[in-house]
Structures
1.
Amino acid sequence: MSARAANAPAGARGFQPSDLLRFFAIAIAVAAIVDPAVAVTGATRARIAVVNLEPAASEAARSAGALVRDLSATYDVQPQVSSDVAAAVIVGRSYPADPLPGAFPVATVTIPDAPGARIVRVTAPREVPPATSIHLDVDVDWRGVAGQTTEMSARVGGLEVARASHRWTDDRERWRAALDAVPVGDPPYVVHVQAGAASADVVVGARARPLRVEFYDPRPSWATTFIRRALEGDARFEVESLSFSSRGVAARTARAVSLADPRLDAFDAVVVGGLERLSSSDVRALERYMRERGGGVVLAPDEHVNEGPARDLVPGATERLLERPAKLISTRVAASLQASEMLVMRADAGADVLAATPGQSAEPVIVSMPRGAGRLVVSGAMDAWRFRAAEQGAFDRFWQSVVAGLALAAAPALDVSITPPILHPGDRADLIVRVRGRRDAAVSASVDSQPLRLWPEAEAGVYRGRFAAPTTPGRSIVDAHASGGVEASASTVVPVDRDARPVDNGVVPALSMLAVSHGGIDVTPDRLADAERFVRDSVPPRREPAARHPMRSTWWILPFAGLLSADWWLRRRRGLK
């Protein structure tokens, strides 16, 4: 370099390569600060959900995995349903418990039931008095095993307390088994029902207070007299009676009340005879007692009721007289009655036949039917009391069982229920509190002495809360209290067991109904391609305009750092700082 060039002033130097490098570095920094947006149009990946409702190691899990693999190339697939998904595929056996958060197309993959038994319902009392067996009605669905025999057992505290068996005749069949289980140990009693490989647990508490029953007779009646004596001989019952021998003359016990008296709600069941003497107000009071209070009523006529207000309470009946007594077939009660003067009833939808005539016709004689929140039992065995000594007192045992079942089903003033009634450690459960006949009651609840917040439901007097079971096996105690016009308290114990097998006694719709309600299709695991095709047709790829911010990419740091480094290196070579 010449001395002239070296001695030239700094401001007289020409354009240098480092200046260009510095310019681009400054441009990148300015663009990053400005953060310009660029509008582009391109294909977007829609978000869909593929949900498996069954255990991880199952046919449902394999089907869900295959769907995820095939759809992930086109869609953003997630394992749970959220409000922003464009479509969903649900894989399982039954309708999901939680509603879907949104309206979008849904395809369902229904996993068929494996051959064998499935317990679909177990009906048991909420609680039983001391020294009382637990009556269970177990509904079992069976598939693909015609000609085989299934043994069903009930265990309490690890001990077998009841057993039944059934031989299947069809490939698809439902069997209702009646079991009387003996409670063992301390309450609440956890009854474990086993049918083949299927099992279920139900929880039954112990009732400390007696079953309160009132007998009401507008005229003396032999039919109700001997039913009353059967209950009076049973320590589980507290019996009151009001019987009119003539107009204005009545024999009553200390706490008996008329049918129109509001104190009738303190009774769990009412037994009525002399039906042709019932007045219109008596019939209205009985209807209110059943529908609003949820109590049980037994009508025990001793003659055919052809007219009068009570005619509306008795379903269409035909009188039948026999020369000799016939032994009735008891379908829900262990003991059997005999009768020669009978009323053959009409069993409407929802009615249970408690006793029927012998033979293939099996016409209903004693029928139990729902009446609002309560239940009505009508006995057509008009002269069964004449044969009360037969079958070692079967008459007494029959009516003790029937009236006890009605009384136990009657709703208390404050009712506490847990769903499910038995929990795994850490599971969540719903607490439902019902206050009978009160809309303005103040209700509070606690779980293991910890306050629980309750929310009012749409139904008046019903409150709901949600709580989590302890993480260790044991028991949780749920307490509820109502005040403000009604003072009542209730408590229940919730078993927590790692091996719990609760059964859902609700009517669960088929999984295919979810697809129907969301405009989708239902397929079996061998038709997964149809489910994929449905998703692709429902959610096609879309080209949508979108704003892109290219300067937000972290890769710009590399050219920025490279330019600054090159500028620094060139300046150092020229001896500049």
2.
Amino acid sequence: MILIYLLLFVAVNVYSQQQSFLPTLSHPLTTEHETKFLSLQSRNHTSVPETLHVVAMMAQFQKDSVSTTTGDGSFDTSHSTKKIIDPSPHDFSYFSDHLLFAKNYFAKVSNGKLYIDYHLLAPVITLPKAMKKYSPSKTSTVFKEIDTLVMDAWHILDSLNPSINFSQFDSNRTVFIVFHAGVGRDVDLASTYGYDPRPFDIPTLYKSFLNFKKNFGNDFIGFPVDGGTYRIKNSIILPETESRFLPSSFGGDVFVQLGINGMICANIGSHLGLPDLFNTKNGRSGIGRFGLMDGEGIFAWNGFIPPEPSAWEKYFLGWVEPQTILSSQTAITLPAVSMTDVEDTIYRVPIAEREYFLVENRIRDAKEDSTTVWVRRDGLIVPLKFYREPRGYSSGNQDSLYGTIIDVDEFDWSLPGGYDTDSTYYNGGILLWHIDENVIEEKYAANEINADIKHRGVDVEQANGAQDIGEVLNTVFGAVIGSGSAFDFWFKENPLRVKKKISNTFSPKSFPNANSNDGANSHISLNNFSERNARMTFDIHIGDDEIKPLAGFPKNV
């Protein structure tokens, strides 16, 4: 279940809004521009991909004028003239574009192994209650009010449009989405203001069949539609936008731009079975912006561009089969995972029976052709090309990205990177992951895989020499939560290891070290990392002065 509360460290812009709305029943992928765009994005796959149906609807609330929720209960249907991301009108085409983004995202990050077949259903329905009535308390763990929202939404849609043929969607391969009017209750405003000015907004989350059964009882078999012949057994609840006006200490309100692309992709990831990889007990980061299922990844680039899933997330979903290394080797080649012309290459280095390292190359611009973002503006798809990070195109400022983002050539552009004080541009490198399947198995059901900062199931071995992701750090700007940086990648002449006079080696004696989670010496060392590149190399040594494999090991038996 995805439910994120994040501190707001984002750039802000001020503007005013106007409203209007014209829903349409036509499929969004019909214009000449869209057809051309899809042909450019097509991939040649060696096998038939798995298909996931995504069926979405749009629900608004009874109008109200309360100040404790965002908006008046209806969708923002104005035709915005402001140069912002995710501009209104938030109508059929707007939500279709966000589903198209999810389709493009999963096609690329799965190397064509997952195909999203999405359907946005009409008409827009109006729920029988105001937003506040569907908002659970912040201490709730069962979210009964949201269950009622989902039940009402699908019942009303089915009654208003009985021609919808739900039986075309395989119930075992379909995830349902309710896009609702308003803003998500998904960022920690209380930490910023000392109170939450919108406490009755609706939180974003994924509700599984088992989760629904907890509230409706064991007799629950799904929400009936199509005359009771089909049962909806899951739903993702998502807001129309995460952008909002917030009070400013300088007087007046400021407009904070936050996107829903990361939210959509992460909640689909939840449906696929991925657990949350942030600390679900306190909301702090667990793996930073190095994967999808962390608040930092979900809100990377303010929620508009999520990074690729981590090596373990892809391994868990069956999108990649790591190559296991059992003996010492030199100059092991490691292509960047965002290169679209090759299958992902990830190496697995066993520590114990159910504990191992995963090694992957994550480069922000693996094709070395800058980054291209496709946005829709005024009904047209426009490609925007950026060289590195010019003004208005950075993780903290996306002023140049106005419109609705529907694709990015390399999603790993949202990884930590940028310029150092010496004007050197840092673009990624090798990531080392420490995976403990004992922790994963034990904590998976409770969704607490990374809740114990000392023994995470999926952990980044940070090259900066400080395992500080999720830790409270005291800085000149006050206390902040560690979320990873460009120097957590392993590469030749990593400046933080050079400045700290730390050997650029990952071993049982390094920091971080290569020992097992119970402190046992793994006798594994990785070093000689090459310069940051789309094809990097490294050496691995298995065995040391204490223990070495027999000559000729391993033998094929």
